[in-house]
Amino acid sequence: MGNINIIETRVRGFIEDIQHPRQKKKLNINDLEYQLHQQIEDYYDMDGYTLFYETIQAMVEEDILSPIMNKQINGRSPLLPLYYWVNVKKQEANWDRLEMLKRNDLLDFTYYNQHPEWQTNEEWERIMKMYEFLKTEDEREVVSLEERCLELFGHEKFLSDEQLYPEGSGFLHRIGVDIKRLKTVKYGEPFVYWMKKGCDLASIKRILIVENLSFFHTSIKLLEEESLDYEPEMIIYGEGRKIESSFSFFFRMFPEKPYLFYYAGDLDAEGYTIFNRLKERYGDCSIQPALKIYRKMLECEQLANEERKQVRNEFDKNAFFSWFTEEEQIQLESLWKNQKRIPQEVLTVESWRRWL
């Protein structure tokens, strides 16, 4: 009996140490047995492997361990699978059911009843703060997500940074609360822009949005030289995909009136998608591709380079190509087929002067 106890005690103690309350862990049986006979001097004399085998089988029956049946075995007799899952540590419910019932009017505790491992003091504190907030949600103002997270959870990135707060990403799902009820908004960063010299807000009609920083500065020089296509009163630096969210600031910064927006980006999959999403998201605005600028880029096809790690969306591609002539579409299709792209940086002050 003593031999059985020492083997079983050591095995169960090791498993308990590595058991996690929320995720399974993989265990190599040979590694575990090696640790045993390193710690127990007369392991082989007491027929330690038989006792080890019996303990493992008992823990499988108790659903503490689950064998991984991948045909790998430990090479001993009687044989065991080489790998096991150490199952999630089962925990008893910790919270007072009456306290949960009191808050069922605003919160859903179904997940916590099914997963008692989440019934921790820290989680309950978060739930209490959430409940107090929801009681007054109709009176609350809309604030940023970061501001609300700091108020409710003590850190502005609790719901947005999964690496820093892994328990935060699923919190709203666990408690059955839609993020809209938090009265938050995800703000984009304001864009950088340049206004034509001598131009006032009332005279702005045409705006050129450019995807890349180099061409933003090139466009400013060309505007000052009065040689930029479309003669815009304003140039906006789109900063790649950022413009999709930052563009909303335009209507908070400038007078409400009809504007004509021209967009110029890279001739590649990402550039096509940015334009189409911008046009779809702000459907009330007049947004069109800056065809004169794109045509200059097509004349620089010899500088096309390889498209790398971009999501290729056929719908966005076709929608963008439809703005061009048949001849131009053939050229664009060839670039697409060969996974080539023409970056906006082909347009420099020097190259532009060739078209003057």
Q: What order do the strands of the largest sheet run in, or round the barrel if closed?
A: 6-8-7-9-10
Low-confidence parts, pLDDT < 50 over ≥5 residues?
Answer: none
The tally of helices reads 16
Structural class: alpha/beta
The percent of residues in helical segments reads 40-55%
Shape: elongated
Order of helices and strands: HEHHEEHHHEHHEEEHEHHEHEHEHHEH
What's the β-strand tally?
12
**C-alpha Rg, in Å?**
32 Å
Mind summarizing the main beta sheet? 5 strands, mixed
Beta-strand proportion: 5-15%
User: Gap between N and C termini, in Å?
Assistant: 98 Å
Mean of pLDDT = 90
In words, what does this structure look like?
With 356 residues, this protein is α/β, with parallel strands linked by helices. The chain is built from 16 helices and twelve strands. The protein has helices at 2-18, 29-39, 48-61, 97-102, 110-114, 121-134, 145-153, 171-175, 213-224, 243-246, 250-253, 269-281, 291-298, 314-321, 326-337, 349-352, and strands at residues 25-28, 65-67, 83-86, 143-144, 184-185, 192-195, 206-210, 234-237, 260-264, 286-289, 305-306, 340-341. β7 (206-210), α9 (213-224) and β8 form a beta-alpha-beta unit. α1 packs across α3 and α12 (269-281) packs across α14 (314-321). It is elongated. The relative contact order is 0.07.
List the keywords.
single chain, about 350 residues, alpha/beta, five-stranded mixed β-sheet, three-stranded antiparallel β-sheet, 12 strands, about 10% strand, elongated
